Amino acid sequence: MTAARRILVVDDDPASCDLVAYFLKSLGYRVVIAPDGNRALNVGSEGDIELVILDEHLPIYDGIEVLAMLRKRHVMRPLKVLAITGDDSEDVRSAFESHGIDGFLTKPIDLEGLREAVSRLMADHAEREDGLYRRLHERRLGR
What we know:
Layout: E1 6-10, H1 14-26, E2 30-34, H2 37-44, E3 49-54, H3 63-73, E4 80-85, H4 90-98, E5 103-106, H5 111-141
Parallel strand pairs: 1-2, 1-3, 3-4, 4-5
Helix pairs in contact: 2-3
């Protein structure tokens, strides 16, 4: 049996965090929670995180700052990042998009929409990892 895939949920609202974490765990994912941008960056640097679910309004570093720093830290193996925020303004959406957000959902959280977005992003991540592994293996074999 393979280990459950790991998701980081970053939100300073305990109720939102608990809802998302409980829902993702019910789908079979391992979930780590970070209540602020600094802890998100520390946990996001761990090698087995595949997806970050990120709120915009956070203590220490906001979601856009966290996204920008994660993108700089994970150039060779980019993480998938899904924004979930109550701020659906065009400025926030544009800022997330300019830093390469992979998905954007608004609060209140639609669990079916969350399930679909997470499934899509985790499948994209697995395909990318499989392709990277295949290319490295072919290089080793001299193909």
